Hints:
Elements: H1 18-27, H2 29-53, E1 60-65, H3 73-79, H4 82-91, H5 98-103, E2 105-109, H6 113-123, H7 127-133, H8 137-148, E3 154-159, H9 168-183
Antiparallel strand pairs: 1-3, 2-3
Amino acid sequence: MSSKKNIPRVNDEISIDIAQLSKKWWYFRKFIVFGTAIVLLSSLFILILSNKTLKEDTYIATVMRGDLGENNSVIIDSLQSKEIIDKVLKTFSLNLNANQFLSQAIITIGSDPLSNSLQTLVTSLSDSDIKRLSVSTNVLDEMIKSLNNTSDDIITLQLHHSLLNLGDKQAISIIYKLIDEVNK
């Protein structure tokens, strides 16, 4: 005996039973509700993560003039001292450690960010801008050279505070306190 399979005919009418469909939906309602909730929660999680990663990076910078001459590296070592940073962070009762702070702090010597940005602006001037300023190229070259002649006693500290979830005023207070501790 060969088994026969019932193959539906194409010409038959397809009827949809609304009552049976609603019963099936009611039977699978848990899967539908939980599936929708999982999709919603995962979308919300991705939105929150992308909001934190796309946060605008802002920083507070201060430019200091070291008074130790060629020994300004002592000042930089003090600004990067974990003991001093931990002491400053404890006075503000912050949940940060020195490693987290130092990962968002940039301390450089001999470069003034304002001079660097002015130098970039001057070098990016077009010929029409130079003509409007009625300045010769020799004068511009002298300006660039004078901007390059920044002294080695300039120390710049940049703190990217937004990545540490600190406000502007908090970051400024931390920098002031850190400089006070280094000066002691």
